[in-house]
Amino acid sequence: MKENDVQRILEAVLLCSRQPLSIQQLRRAFEPFELSADIIKDHLAGLQQIWQDRGLELVHVASGWRFQNRADIQPYLLRLQNEKPARYSRATLETLAIIAWRQPVTRGDIEDIRGVGVSTQIIRTLEDRGWIEVLGYRDAPGKPALFGTTKQFLDDLSLRSIQDLPALDSPQEIDVIQKALSDSQKDHSDYAPSDSGVDSEDK
């Protein structure tokens, strides 16, 4: 197989995929040819160079590789969408931020940090969206669930790992999450529209 063909195939596969693809998944696209992971990575690096001045960029996130629009292009794309991106209440974002930066944490830990109770609806919203999951249970009375973030959360923020989050003492930690989630082009039809301002659990 020609070198140029490998890059063209990778480009087409990634552009047509709705989800990030891992190196292993990309290798399967070339069967029965056996391309090493290093060869795939070299061609991915080449594609990143080719696309560096275009409206799309090739990025490596937690679940694999994907093409996504660049941040400066997002406002133009939003004008073509019938539904505005969801806005999440500050209570929901604070809960998500605490889980992201302090994980694994229990619901009680979150309430201690926030100083107020955490409604079941907030936890359910974050679980339904695929951003948090139960990682285990604390060895304490009642065996409270320990929550952590998911690969989907990292993908939606275009991060490869939880270590890529800004420093914990960053005053913009809530704003970073809000902006990243607002920029997501995924279907938000199950969530509050952006002009509502708050989620139902805060009413």
TrEMBL record:
InterPro entries: ScpB_csome_segregation, WH-like_DNA-bd_sf, WH_DNA-bd_sf. Keywords: Cell cycle, Cell division, Chromosome partition, Cytoplasm. Coiled coil: none annotated. The keyword Cell division applies. SUPFAM superfamilies: Winged helix' DNA-binding domain. Pfam families: SMC_ScpB (PF04079). The keyword Cytoplasm applies. Residues 181-203 are annotated as: Disordered. GO terms for biological process: cell division; chromosome separation. This is SMC-Scp complex subunit ScpB. It comes from Paenalcaligenes hominis. The lineage of its organism: Bacteria, Pseudomonadati, Pseudomonadota, Betaproteobacteria, Burkholderiales.
